[in-house]
Amino acid sequence: MAFLNENYLKLQAGYLFPEIGRRVRQFCEENPEAAKRLIRCGIGDVTEPLPRAAIDAMKAAVEELGDRATFRGYGPEQGYEFLREKIAQHDYRDRGIDVADDEIFVSDGSKCDCGYILDILGAQNRVAITDPVYPVYVDTNVMAGHTGTARANGGYEGIVYLPCTAENNFVPEPPQAHVDLVYLCFPNNPTGAVATREQLSGWVEYARAHDALLLFDAAYEAYISEAEIPHSIFEVPGAEECAVEFRSFSKTGGFTGVRCGFTVMRKQTLGKTEEGKKLPLHPLWHRRWSTKANSVSYPVQRGAEALYSTEGGAQVSRLVEHYMQNARILSEGARAGGLAVYGGRNAPYIWVKTPENLGSWQMFDRMLRELNVVVTPGSGFGSKGEGYFRISAFNSRENAEEVARRLATLS
Ligand code: MLT
Prior knowledge:
- The structure is a single chain.
- Helix content is about 35%, strand content about 15%.
- The chain has helices at about 15-30, 30-35, 50-65, 80-90, 110-115, 135-145, 195-210, 280-290, 300-305, 310-335, 360-370, 395-410; strands spanning about 40, 105, 125-130, 160-165, 180-185, 215, 245-250, 260-265, 270, 280, 340-345, 350-355, 375, 375, 390.
- By secondary structure, it is an alpha/beta fold.
- The chain has twelve helices and 15 strands.
- The relative contact order is 0.17.
- The strands form four sheets. A seven-stranded mixed β-sheet has the order 2-8-7-6-5-3-4, with helices on both faces.
- The chain is globular and about 55 Å long.
- The chain has two domains: about 5-50 and about 310-410, Alpha-Beta Complex (Aspartate Aminotransferase, domain 1), CATH 3.90.1150.10; about 55-310, Type I PLP-dependent aspartate aminotransferase-like (Major domain) (Aspartate Aminotransferase, domain 2, 3-Layer(aba) Sandwich).
- D-malate (MLT) binds next to loops.
């Protein structure tokens, strides 16, 4: 019998969203009438159809594969040049950030990349993670054996937690202590908070002073509405030496099911050996992709490329505007219900304080039973999320308006 990876046995309960799904299924089985009016604002999954530009490009690409003259087999493991060039040009060079095409690595999504990146990082790194946090950063470190055992509060030994609270506007200061690896996500999932240029500069300064690496998840950058908020960590000078950025087409082109994202791995970004020798991470990341993967399918990459066309860009903007209007409607509904509301201005997530000091799962149950609305309990994102819940704005307008009406009845 083969030995199993015992790190998996350290993981707490199920992954958050399957656990919510299980509870909702049980509720629906026991309450078939209420189930009919159930509205899901839990997982941040898009609801609106794909942009027409992406559909047409993917269809045309499939036709190409169906013709001997234009057929393609394996693509480049790091992604097709046509897509890497578009990304580097539109998302970075057009914004004054000098990213080269071969610093873009196309993947099946930023959730996946956040896990894959651990392939090239040492197990001895001291890891700092915000609390609350997107659970993928924590669980992938647990699986890789980078943490100790679980604590009673849901955290893990060995991880440095950075509390994100209403007092610090859900943006943590760099720690006093030394850490090697820091996960940052702005606009933030789950709190919807954004970091200012000064705050991000503080993190880059910390990383450079400590030879630390920032893993910057910018999956929601398209939702930033305030002009002065940075969209990329590479807007901060010096970040190219100490940061890796993850981005996704999931929440821009609605690709949660299509699957496509990318990592920006700069050639100047360094890691170190046990002996202290500093080496660039880029060749390791390149090697990782060459060995373990073949990027994503040709039609999907053509679909992603089409999001950068004039019409594709306009269609993406309309999708983002649709979800952000939902966020405004939901925020107003929650406020009308007497709730304290955060986020939702530069992000598609609304972070809400539970009333009457209810626990997060208690509020989850109340929302499910009384309003027939599925939300995400804040404690599922970390101990500092206790006493909060998250409402996702990824929904139809009709559903967002109905949820807002129901929220308003809470007062
Ligand atoms: C969420 O609900 O937090 C996100 O949908 C998760 C994800 O994008 O993987």
